[in-house]
Amino acid sequence: MELDLLVTELGLLGPVMAALALFFGATVFSATGFGIGMIATPMMLLVYEPQTVIVVAGTGGAGIGVWIISKSWRDIPFRQILPITIAALCGAPIAVFILKTADSSVLSIGIAVLIIIFAIGSFVKVEREIPYATPVGIVTGFIVGVLLPTSGVAGSLVMLLLMTKKWERQTVRAAMAFFLLALMSFSIMLFAYHGLYTPERLTLIGVVIIPTVAGIALGAVLMRHLNERIFNYSIIGIIIVSSVVILVKEATKYL
């Protein structure tokens, strides 16, 4: 019945777009340890309101994080990543309050702008250790804790910070996955507490499970075989184009 209602309201476009968004997002997350929000969010915002997008993508991201951690928990640098993670958890309640109370149109525009900023920022390469890394990490963690559950993006701030550590690729991937899993797991509890898991959203989560699993499998293959630069540039192009479409769509409402 719930699935019939979903299809009636949006046709097949909504569920199909959500399935594709989570497939591509899961592929990137599985391959790199982050990025599901930057991929899935702009695609889903074309057909759903921000609250549904963040709840569905965030829940899917937590599931992928569990899978990555189960394979790479030995690589997690707990001592370095825990202070950043705890700071992010402190920011999450603010994020969920904003998500629940903000105007949907304004939130969509804000999310799209943030996505473009962080997508462009992902080209930045930091070649040396950041001074005062621990305080900077704590501040960064808190900012991401506010922005990520609200917008689905901003994880690249923490990724940039971790890249200055000169760790091995698998260590960065595991640390980032741990950070995101902890933050999104806590956010999921807050989503549930604030009543953001409606029957329609739970149904949509069920719809995207299989595409998400397929994306996880593809991402694991790509991590070993694909040219990383071409992969990153292709993904960033998709992100920016999708975000621009969202901005145009929302801007026309005010014309």
- Strand tally is 0
**Which residues form runs of ≥5 with pLDDT under 50?**
none
Number of helices: 12
Main sheet attributes: strand count, strand direction, barrel closure? none
How much is the average pLDDT? 79
Domains, number: 1
Tell me the quaternary state: single chain
Give a description of the structure:
It is a single chain. This protein has 255 residues and is mostly helical. It has one domain. Helix content is 81%, strand content 0%. The protein has helices at 2-10, 13-32, 36-45, 50-72, 78-101, 104-121, 133-151, 155-163, 169-193, 199-207, 209-225, 228-251. 44% of the residues are buried. The mean pLDDT is 79.
Features:
mainly alpha, 12 helices, 81% helix, 255 residues, 0% strand
How are the secondary structure elements laid out?
Blueprint: H1 2-10, H2 13-32, H3 36-45, H4 50-72, H5 78-101, H6 104-121, H7 133-151, H8 155-163, H9 169-193, H10 199-207, H11 209-225, H12 228-251
Helix pairs in contact: 1-10, 2-3, 2-4, 2-11, 3-4, 3-6, 3-12, 4-9, 4-10, 5-7, 5-9, 6-12, 7-8, 8-9
What is the structure about, briefly put?
By secondary structure, this protein is mostly helical. It is 81% helix and 0% strand.
